[in-house]
């Protein structure tokens, strides 16, 4: 019984996937924050460009 518990506690076979998942989640959070921060600035820039273009008709 103790050998099974010892083997279970020392098993690290899924550790790599957990680390990759955490890195992926961190990258996703950084991208979302960056897009939200830059989204309004990009939208304002496009609005300025559209305002400078000649209108239809």
Question: What would your notes on this structure say?
Answer:
There is one protein chain. The protein is 82% helix and 0% strand. It is mainly α. The protein has 2 helices and no strands. It is rod-shaped, with a radius of gyration of 25 Å.
Write the topology of this structure.
Elements: H1 2-10, H2 15-52
What are the main properties of this structure?
57 residues; mainly alpha; 82% helix; rod-shaped
Question: Which class of secondary structure composition applies to the elements?
Answer: mainly alpha
Globally, the shape reads rod-shaped
Number of helices: 2
- Please give the alpha-carbon distance between the first and last residues: 85 Å
Radius of gyration: 25 Å
Largest sheet data = none
**What percentage of the residues does DSSP assign to strands (E)?**
under 5%
What are the secondary-structure elements, in order, as H or E?
Answer: HH
The averaged pLDDT comes out at 84
Residue stretches low in confidence (pLDDT < 50, at least 5 long) are none
State the total count of DSSP E strands: 0
The helix content is: over 70%
């Amino acid at each position: 019984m103790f050998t099974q518990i010892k083997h279970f506690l020392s098993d690290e076979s899924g550790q790599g996937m957990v680390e990759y998942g955490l890195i992926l989640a961190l990258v996703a959070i950084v991208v979302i924050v960056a897009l939200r921060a830059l989204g309004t600035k990009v939208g304002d820039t496009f609005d300025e460009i559209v305002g400078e273009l000649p209108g239809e008709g």
